[in-house]
Amino acid sequence: MFLVGALDGQVIATVMAGYEGHRGWLNYLGVDPKYQRRGFARAIVQEAERLLREAGCPKINLQVRTTNHAVIEFYRRIGYTTDDVVSMGKRLERDDGNAEKR
Question: In this structure, are strands 10-19 and 2-7 parallel, antiparallel, or unpaired?
Fold first, then answer.
């Protein structure tokens, strides 16, 4: 699911949500900096939660870099907690910030 929040015809917020039958996921929540701290992130997350719940989703997962303290605090304020899990990944392509070399 791709949710888009608009105000006066302008896109100000987006989030991608998915449900794979076991857990729901939130990815790429973003709010235009001019509209941050006005409740738009909370509103679009609540709508994603509603849609996931409607689809039968029992739990939502998301990932935030440990250095992104502001975003971690945002999610805590709206009821998310830290799970006792290890997040693992494997890079398949180099990510050196130089895409034209690929």
Answer: antiparallel
Cα–Cα distance, 24 to 56 (Å, whole number): 9
Q: What dihedral angle (degrees, nearest 10) is formed by the CA atoms of 40, 60, 19, 64?
A: 70
Closest alpha carbon to 45 in 84, 70, 77, 23: 77
Q: Domain 2-82 maps to which CATH number in 3.40.640.10, 3.40.1160.10, 3.40.630.30, 3.30.70.120?
A: 3.40.630.30
What tens digit of pLDDT does each residue of 45-96 get? 999 999 999 999 999 999 999 999 999 999 999 999 999 999 999 999 987 7
pTM over 0.90: no
Phi, psi values for residue 10, rounded to 5°: -110, 130
